[in-house]
Amino acid sequence: MTYTREQILAEVLELLNGVARDWEFEGPVGANTRLFADLAFESLDLVVLGSKVQEHFRQTFPFPQFFADIGQREVRDLTISEWVDFIERHVRQPVAAASRAAGASEGV
Amino acid sequence: MTREVLLIGLDGATFDLLDPLMEEGAMPVLRDVIGSGVRATLRSTVPALTPPAWTSLVTGRGPGSHGIFDFFRKDGESSPLFRFLTSHDVACPTIWSFANSAGLRSTVLNFPLTFPPPKVAGHIVPGGFVPWRQLRLGCHPEGLFDRLRTLPSFNARELALDMTQEAKAIEGCEEAEYEPWIDMHIRRERQWVDIARYLAEKEPADFTAVLFDGVDKIQHLCWRFIDPKMTGALASDWELRVRDKCREYFSELDRRIEELLDVVGDEASVFIASDHGFGPQVRTLFVNAWLRQTGRLAWQPGEAPASVGATALGLNQMARHVFQMDWTRTRAFAPLPSGNGIHIVHADQTHPHGVSADEYKAFRDDLASDLLQIRDPESGEAVVARVWTREEIFTGPNLSLAPDLTLELADGGLISILDSPDPARRRPLPTGTHRPDGVLVLAGPGVNKGARIQPLSILDVAPLLLHALDLPIPPNLEGRFVSEALDPAVLGTRPPRYSDDGPVHTPEMVAAELDAEAESEILRRLQALGYVD
Under an 8 A CB cutoff, do B315 and A44 touch? Predict the structure, then answer.
């Protein structure tokens, strides 16, 4: 399998919905939800979420630069959609896709 | 047969406070435990800071080996960016990893750098900087969080990190907030014991470790209310109430210790330890302000993070700090307010104005020498007691991640990284801060009761823990086996065993990276064979 944007979004939403039920937050969590303004995140929440994303995808992501860039914004916030964009940009696709491709080629 | 082992962590505990509290009768359980066992001063790491110190205690390795020097780590050897540390960054096996490799179960509650939780047999509820909103993600195994929620006392918001509450320990709070804040810590410690008891009843562990971090927090904010040398100056009703509330915290802590001892029973080996000691801080060194004044650091125009009244810096501002510096004119900087470290900017493509390899030694020597000349504006005494180069205090494969210089301040305090017109300034009232000398108490069968033990290194605890678990001691542990702490008769029948090496330690992220490399190699081979583009 490869990670499509839709899959990454679904997995991030699953992760967030999994923890959001422990908060007072009752609204829907979707692509346009803002992490700080809507979910009342603190910067550390973002850092911890980043750790969990790294564990989930079993790779490191350039979060320090990403977080620093957010800190430079006039409005220091980001949407789940932007978070997914970042993951999609840096995620390494699993080797299974290559293996399948190899298998297909062998079949030819 | 393995005996149960209990490690009780008292974050920041010092005999300077515990002894008077025991003498007053506020901590009778601890007094009796010490009376039936042995005690020793436990010398912390340099810097005496929670992440490197606890990691050293539970790995038996120093920061240069395990790679934990602070709460944060440089994102790369020459990067100005720092990232938060996680369990994946601990480069050496912990006691719970050793136990897991030997088929033993562990319950580890509230220890730093246990997020994401290592997948060991047993239970982990992480401590340190895991926000309460995400505590569910940190509990191991899956489903544990929901089980803990059924406990009557469970309150995630008070159990894990709430930054608003956490900040008060360092940044201070309104007078009216002191007593409720201390009460919150009393409730938090009770929760940890309730969880430990619940897990022990359901699924007993061979190794149980519970860290009470309220000791550190309360000593930071309330030092002058509990230090016997200072309490005589307390006069107002409010001050006396806060003093009594602090004593109540320690009395309650004593009951929590008693409850944990009941959980494990009389046959357990008991370790009570702190990661560092504590003492008063009377002044603040604004080290980046001093670096600016001496021409080694520059802020972007209008960006100097001024210290207006406050001397502390919240986590939220810290990440922005490096963008406020002018990197064309900054050659040395202190990025973090926690570890007293100064980093030198190394010349490279990104920082052509940094310090070149040729001038590095002279630059660092001059910097260290000048730091020792900083004077207290009122007393004239030296503000910096000692400057350590990283080679002097660290050794191991992670040396390059350490600060180039680490300061030991004359009052034992922590630096501020804010800007200020005065590099050194007296505090209006003393606060509490870390000191090198922590505590160690050993009790249970096999302890050499009443033995006089010389001060130990925090690295000496892990070999004793492994011996108590009847596990072999790897040769690369950096502490010594403190045989004088144990009954010679017990040592005769159960001497320490030494292994050729420890369990192979592959932090999960490293494993993942290796997998990724392997994947890349497969891809390269497939490409070479023409299977993929």
Answer: yes
